[in-house]
């Protein structure tokens, strides 16, 4: 049986999400063990010898400790969002901080520019205020519309999820550190890294 830690090891050895997804489909169809070389072939890796070398040279106990720093879930878990599974090349593993139950709530995503106009920010605030807690807000954590959507959600006591493009221990942009820390404790932050 494939575990989330197996997925983590494959990714750390250089396998892409696309490659892992191909492997998962293979293992779902054919219930058999295969060699690392065959795994690389199924995953259509560019450098199979490099993958094999990186995989074999992993310090498994160190990797296991690193893996345990933040909780995670994968495509193999029930909590994984169905709509995310449907995209081309979905992330195999997602790490999180906060209330994972928010993934099961109806969501409304906000996407916008970093250099948001005051009119754009007011529009976000108005929309979020009128939601009356019927939706969980989902956005990145960049400046501009992303930040405005989370701040409006917090102000109106509406659940919110931030999806970030860095590790959970990295604050980017740095000016959003307090927001990220608040969301990690009181809402939900997701990261592929």
TrEMBL record:
<protein>
    <submittedName>
        <fullName>DNA processing protein</fullName>
    </submittedName>
</protein>
<dbReference type="InterPro" id="IPR041104">
    <property type="entry name" value="SAM_DprA"/>
</dbReference>
<dbReference type="Pfam" id="PF18255">
    <property type="entry name" value="SAM_DprA"/>
</dbReference>
<dbReference type="InterPro" id="IPR003488">
    <property type="entry name" value="DprA"/>
</dbReference>
<feature type="domain" description="DNA processing protein A sterile alpha motif">
    <location>
        <begin position="2"/>
        <end position="63"/>
    </location>
</feature>
<dbReference type="GO" id="GO:0009294">
    <property type="term" value="P:DNA-mediated transformation"/>
</dbReference>
<dbReference type="InterPro" id="IPR057666">
    <property type="entry name" value="DrpA_SLOG"/>
</dbReference>
<dbReference type="Pfam" id="PF02481">
    <property type="entry name" value="DNA_processg_A"/>
</dbReference>
<comment type="similarity">
    <text>Belongs to the DprA/Smf family.</text>
</comment>
<feature type="domain" description="Smf/DprA SLOG">
    <location>
        <begin position="76"/>
        <end position="193"/>
    </location>
</feature>
């Amino acid at each position: 049986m494939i575990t989330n830690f197996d997925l983590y090891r494959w990714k750390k050895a250089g396998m892409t999400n696309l490659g892992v997804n191909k492997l998962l489909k293979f293992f779902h169809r054919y219930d058999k063990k295969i060699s690392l070389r065959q795994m690389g072939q199924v995953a259509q890796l560019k450098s199979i010898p490099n993958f094999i070398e990186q995989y074999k040279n992993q310090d498994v106990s160190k990797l296991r400790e690193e893996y345990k720093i933040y909780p995670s879930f994968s495509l193999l878990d029930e909590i994984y969002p169905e709509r995310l599974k449907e995209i081309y090349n979905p992330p195999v593993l997602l790490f999180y901080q906060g209330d994972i139950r928010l993934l099961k709530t109806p969501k409304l995503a906000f996407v916008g520019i970093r250099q948001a106009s005051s009119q754009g920010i007011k529009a976000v605030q108005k929309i979020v205020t009128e939601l009356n807690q019927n939706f969980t807000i989902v956005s990145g954590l960049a400046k501009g519309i992303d930040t405005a959507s989370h701040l409006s959600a917090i102000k109106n006591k509406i659940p919110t999820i931030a999806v970030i493009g860095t590790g959970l221990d990295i604050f980017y942009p740095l000016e959003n550190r307090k927001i990220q820390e608040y969301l990690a404790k009181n809402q939900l932050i997701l990261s592929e890294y």
